[in-house]
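Quick one: Acyl carrier protein from Pendulispora brunnea, structure tokens please.
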Amino acid sequence: MANENLKEELRALISEISEVDDIPDDAAFKDLGIDSMMGVEIVAAIERQYKIKVDDTELQEITTLTKSYELVSGKLGNT
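--- reply ---
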């Protein structure tokens, strides 16, 4: 899977769950109106889609699209 495709897939997934049309790479999710409940939904969707496990200690790292991408990419071995 190409890295650009992964980032765009994550952008689409986060956009769909949060109902925020534009998800800039480095904008903090909280600044986009994405609250903790949406964050849990996003993580659950990421885990399902990519068949990975996000540990509770990693949840606090998922604050931007770029950080989400880095975490998922690392778990998928794309780094």
